[in-house]
Amino acid sequence: MITALLLSVFLFLSAVASHLAILGVGHRLLDRRRDTQAKLAVSLLVLASHFLVAILFAAGFWLGAQWGLGGFDKAPSMDWMDYFYFSLINVTTLGLGDIYPTEHLRVLAGVEALTGFALISCSAQLFWTMMHKGEKA
């Protein structure tokens, strides 16, 4: 359990740091330009950031499974796409339930959902800023 918590904290901090760094680039771009191309670029940055977070947690789920912290039910074997799929569904808090973690990997899933909720809120703030600045142009 301690290992799962430490892995979760490491992934949380890595995800938040990378997401905030990428959003910072978006804010700086919006400070310089307010045209449609800049807004599309910022939108792609946000998408890339969320994909990066899902990839980080997918790697964490794989690592946790390798360390014997748990596995996944309803999946006979997990490949990289299954880990990414589960992570992407979980980080968005959608949670389809077609596959789900067992044992201590459930802790990681809970922390990922909380992380996703917080980071989606940060992204929403950037989109609000982008639209608000667009009104002033």
Overall description:
The protein is mainly alpha-helical and 137 residues long. It has helices at residues 2-32, 36-66, 80-91, 105-136; strands at 72-73, 100-101. 77% of the residues lie in helices and 3% in strands. The chain has one domain: Helix Hairpins. It is elongated. Strands 1-2 form a two-stranded antiparallel sheet. It contains four helices and two strands.
Helices, strands, pairings?
Blueprint: H1 2-32, H2 36-66, E1 72-73, H3 80-91, E2 100-101, H4 105-136
Antiparallel strand pairs: 1-2
Helix pairs in contact: 1-2, 1-4, 2-3, 2-4
Shape: elongated
Sequence of strands across the biggest β-sheet: 1-2
What would CATH call the class?
A: Mainly Alpha
State the secondary-structure class. mainly alpha
Radius of gyration: 17 Å
At the fold tier of CATH, the topology name is Helix Hairpins
Low-pLDDT residue spans = none
Residue-averaged pLDDT? 90
CATH architecture: Orthogonal Bundle
Relative helix content: over 70%
Q: Would you list the SSEs in sequence order as H and E?
A: HHEHEH
Cα distance spanning the termini = 52 Å
Portion of residues in beta strands equals under 5%
Number of domains: 1
| Total number of helices | 4
Reported for the largest beta sheet, the result is: 2 strands, antiparallel
Extended strand count:
2
